Amino acid sequence: MITVRTAASADVEQMAELLKELFAIEADFVFDRDKQIQGLRLLLESGKDRVFVAESGGRAVGMCSVQTLISTAEGGLVGLLEDLIVTAAFRRQGIGEKLLAAAVDWAERQGFKRLQLLADKNNLPALAFYEKQAWRQTQLICLRKC
Predict the structure, then answer these.
(1) CATH superfamily of 2-117
(2) Which residue from 50, 68, 87, 102 lies 20 to 30 Å from 108 (Cα-Cα)?
(3) What span, in angstroms and rounded, lies between the C-alpha atoms of 136 and 113?
């Protein structure tokens, strides 16, 4: 049985392992356990953001996060969905949909005007998943300065 719940500090190590799997398929990121653990802790402690885990048998098998931003275009709060990952052995069981639904529900209850995400342009399975969930590409592109 899969349970989706809000992540807790006790989940950080298992979520770091999920991020390791995610970053192995994303060209822009390199896994660094210390950095990922620090980022997860900051999210959990922020008080304004939310991290969800999908759990099976006491093990985190999936996760996603929503970070709170303010949009001048929308005139209010919006969310950045990040780190949606389901470990390979548990994919194609509806877990990603459950995680995404939990994130959307939470964002709606917070009064967010919009959710947005970034996806690796070469991760065709992820892009197909988001399209199936009624997420649409925009005319915006992501730029980054390191």
Answers:
(1) Gcn5-related N-acetyltransferase (GNAT) (3.40.630.30)
(2) 87
(3) 16
pTM beyond cutoff 0.85:
yes
Between helices 33-45 and 12-23, what is the axis angle to 10°? 120
Q: Which residues make Cβ contacts (< 8 Å) with residue 120, sequence separation at least 6?
A: 25, 26, 27, 28, 126
Nearest to 48 by CA among 70, 33, 75: 70
Candidates 9, 19, 86; CA nearest to 55 is 86
Whole-angstrom distance, CA of residue 38 vs CA of residue 88: 24
Cα dist from 10 to 60, 62, 99, 107, whole Å:
11, 15, 19, 23
